[in-house]
Every structure is written in C-alpha cells, then in structure tokens.
Design brief:
112 residues, mainly alpha, 2 strands, 79% helix
Length: 112
C-alpha cells in the first residue's frame, strides 16, 4: 500500500498478494530447514557427543534447555510466517472485494 496525492491510500493488490505468497514461501522454507537441519541437530545431540562424565553432564544440563528453546522458536517462526502470508493474501482479497462492492453501491447513487 502507498499514499498518493490527496492523502488517498492505494493498494497494489497484485504486489501485495505476491508479498503474501513470498512470506508463505519463506515460512515453508524455514519450516523445512527446521525439519532437516534442526532434526539433525536434535538427533546428534541426543547421542550426547560431549560425553557422560561430570563435564559432559554439566554441558548437557546447560545445553538441553537452550536447544529446545531454539528448535521450538525456529519451528514456530516458520509456522507464523506461513500463516502471515496466507493472512496477507486473504486480507488483500477482502479489501479488493469490499472496494468493488462499495464502488458498485456508489455507482447506483442518484446524484439528483
């Protein structure tokens, strides 16, 4: 959207829909990366490659919670971006329909 002369708001529906589609695609890519790379990280760390001695146990206590937070946030961000993209497209479509309906009603108004 942009403001044009006279303070009017103008929506480039095609561009906004493409932006929404791009957001959805970015979310899907992020989610796929989480599944692939994040899954490999979780799988590797489950083996506790740092060892099970006292030092390894101390590392495990500090690491595990951080790993869970990062992986959960990574997954959530992907989902939210995808959903935001869908919502952008839905919003643009609703705005275009509303504008067309309002224009149709205004066209039927008798100026006399």
């Amino acid at each position: 959207m942009s403001v044009v002369g006279g303070g009017q708001l103008w929506l480039d529906a095609t561009r906004a829909r493409l932006g929404g589609a791009d957001l959805s695609a970015a979310g899907e890519a992020l989610t796929a990366g989480r599944a692939e790379v994040g899954g490999a990280i979780a799988s590797a760390s489950a083996q506790q490659p740092w060892g099970r001695d006292d030092i390894g146990a101390a590392f495990e206590r500090g690491y595990r919670g951080c790993e869970e937070v990062v992986l959960r946030a990574w997954e959530g961000l992907g989902r939210q971006l995808s959903a935001l993209g869908v919502d952008v497209v839905r919003s643009v479509d609703a705005n275009v329909r509303t504008d067309a309906a309002a224009a149709g009603r205004l066209a039927r108004v008798d100026p006399n």
